[in-house]
Amino acid sequence: DTGAYNAWLSMKARVRKKTGPIFKSYGARGIKYCERWEEFVNFYEDIGHLWTPGMTLERINNDRNYEPSNCKWIPKSEQSRNRRSIVWIETSMGTMSVQDACRAAGISRGAMEHRIVARWPVDRILEPARKTKNY
How confident is the model over 66-95, as pLDDT tens digits? Predict the structure, then answer.
């Protein structure tokens, strides 16, 4: 599978290529891949055979290495939600990203940030914006 092979090559580059643009977020932080995955055939046997088009390799715990127990395939659209820069908040629907909370409440990021800074109660943070009357 070309997709699994490309994901394997990218994983290795993120961890080992010191001149790579994102090495600082992976290899420089001490992220490695298991010794078994040095060979593509082993990577494919462990997880690569599960790849399907549109999927990307995800580490379940971003502070742990690439290894069978810490990796899975997820849609590319979900990958962006798992960055270390994502801000998570508690809501009445559970923990969610600020972006998802904005979508659920139907409000802007600025309005959500106002609610967070104002320390709105968890049970109110997802309330839809109140409509104001224009006179």
Answer: 999 999 999 876 765 656 567 777 888 888
| pTM for the whole structure | 0.62
Q: pLDDT per residue over 52-71, tens digit each?
A: 998 999 998 888 999 999 99
Q: Which residues contact 105 (CB under 8 A, 6 or more apart)?
A: 111, 112, 125, 126, 127, 128, 129
72 in Cβ contact with 60 (< 8 Å): yes
Strands (DSSP E) along the chain, which ranges? 55-59, 71-75, 88-91, 94-97
Q: Which amino acid is at 114?
A: H
Strands 94-97, 55-59: pairing is unpaired
Buried b (16+ CB within 10 A) or exposed e, 62-86: eeebbbeebbebbeeeeeeeeeeee
Please state the separation of Cα 100 from the chain's center in Å: 13
